[in-house]
Each structure stands twice: as structure tokens, then as C-alpha cells.
Amino acid sequence: MVNGSGTGRSGANSVQSVDRAISVLEILAKHGEAGVTEVATELGVHKSTAFRLLGVLEHRGLVEQAGDRGKYRLGVGIVRLAGATASRLDLSQETRPVCEQLAALLGETVNVAIADHDAAVNVAQVRGSAAVTSHNWVGRRTPLHATSSGKILLAFLPPEQLRVALSRPLARFTDNTVTSTKSLREQLVRIRASGCAFSIEELEIGLNAAAAPVRSYDGTVVGAISVSGPSYRLTEQRLREITAQVVEAGIEASRRMGFN
Hints:
Layout: H1 4-31, E1 34-35, H2 36-43, H3 47-59, E2 63-65, E3 71-74, H4 76-86, H5 91-106, E4 109-116, E5 119-126, E6 141-143, H6 148-155, H7 159-165, H8 181-194, E7 197-200, E8 207-215, E9 221-230, H9 236-241, H10 243-256
Antiparallel strand pairs: 1-3, 2-3, 4-5, 4-9, 5-6, 7-8, 8-9
Helix pairs in contact: 1-3, 2-3, 5-10, 6-8
Protein name: Glycerol operon regulatory protein
GO molecular function: DNA binding; DNA-binding transcription factor activity
Domain HTH iclR-type: 15-76
């Protein structure tokens, strides 16, 4: 007969091992690389225990040894698992709570857009309390170079894709539209550095906006979250004032998409 108390201890030990294995992964995620001694110290266990945990994780491809220096790092198995999860994450669904929170905080309309060839397409929208129109941006294609979301999507394109995107003439929509490739490239450098883009009456007179990137689990920019409103209310000064909130919303949306 199996001893009930023994089974309980075995189960508890198994749960503890799982918890420790997860902690190992979190330690490597935090430090990038770590040796057995470092892992053991952070876990508060003997080196032999840390070595066994790392061995099991290495066997499953979740960690790997970084060269011959006795260090470990996350393995490609993590990417496989993350990819399986990320493939099920719907951008508009996952960012909805963030859009609602930002719209409530600022009172303005919040959109999420993705790139579609030479345009940005809005896939989600939440109206703020101060919005006075019922204009629906969902599904609308907007030019990359004349919108805050579009500039975010342009700024984080791979170099070759950006070259192709900027090889076409830049259409003018208002007197404020940037139609110089050189000027636009200079803007994109600043956007990559600050993590925020602005559109000051560049698509429509009387419409201003600010946007930040939304990243996937691997750091790739998969969308942009933006706040837009009438220029008499969302002035250039006001855009600067809300930059931190917009960027923070992009960070939270990215976290929900699996980006750490």
C-alpha cells in the first residue's frame, strides 16, 4: 500500500522543483547569463541542486550553455514556447484594456494601428470623454508618413524595408505634411530615440496626434498606439505633456503582447 503522507511529500517536492525551475528561467531572463553558483545563490539552494535544474532545462532546450565559460542562458526552446503563445494573441483584443485606460485618462480618442504595405490600418479604437465626433477610424488606411502611428511603424522597419518605403514620393495632404525624404528620415531617428511620434495637422487640418510603439514578444514593433484629437485642445504643448502617458501605454500594450 502506498503511504499517503509519502505521496504528499513527493507531490510537494515536485511542485517545489517546478517552482525552482521557473525561477531559474527568470534569473537567466534578468541577467542574460549566469553560472551555477550565481543561480544557486539566488535560489538559496546547494550548487548540486542548481546544476540538476539547469541540466533538465538544458535537456528540454529551455536553457543552453554560453560557450565554454560555464555560463547558462535562455535557449531556443523559450522562443518556441513564446511564439506559440504570441501567435494566439490578438493585437486589438490584447491592447483594448490599455486603450480604454488611456482614453479615460486623457479624454481623447485612442487608436491602435498596424502596417499594411504602404499604409497604417487602424484595428482598434476607444473614444475618450472629450471626443465630440463619432468618426470611426477602424479599418481606415492612413499614410505612414503623415500620421503619428505611421511614423512609428516606419521608424522601426528593418533598413531595407524602410528604404523601399521611402523610395516612393511622399504625398502632401496639408501644408504641414513632410514630403522631404531627408526631413522624414531625420524625424525617424528622433522617434527611435524617444519612442514617441507626433503628427501636427499633417493628415488633416485641425487634427493632432501622438503615438508610441507596441512590440511583440521578440521586441519586433507590431503596431502603434496613438492618441488623437482636435488641435485646439490637443495642442503641441499638450502633446508634449502627455508623451509620458502615451509611451507608458505602449510599454503596457507590449507587455500584454508578451514583450518583457
